[in-house]
Design a protein that fits this description.
Length: 178
Amino acid sequence: MKKTASVLLLFSIATSAFAADKGFAADKGFYIGANVGQARTNTYDLSSKTNIAATGLVGYQFNKNVAVEAQYSHLGSITATGGGSATIAGYGAAVVGILPFNEQWSGYGKLGFDSMSLKISDTGHTANRIAATWGIGGQYNVNQALGIRLGYDSYGIGDSTTQTATTIVVSAGVVYKF
């Protein structure tokens, strides 16, 4: 019930911003993107805490200041101190606040939810967790269609009944508006 209410709240904020917009045609529309970066998981029982992360995303920008995004993230593999490894991957959705500095540069912040799975390779056990996700970053618009991003994102992982952790991702990527 809380998840449904949260999604409805995010949707109503986004649609209100859409209705209030008075222009900025170049700032509206769908976009796709991809990011690659370094992930670091902060839990005490790991011998390998960092790995390569990759994210694919789709979004819709309502006006120059508000967008929504959905994404799939593969946050790499981590290794436990006693051996064994786990893969982290999942889906998420967020509302994105955008602060344009000029035609080319903007900053952004995002807040939403993710559903991440931590799949342990030697036991086959999967720990699922739905948690808040957030991120900050900047974007350079090469032209009206292509942008280059740098970002810092935080994801909740683990099993909420046992051990939980956070994975931080520092990434670079591209977005394409159409």
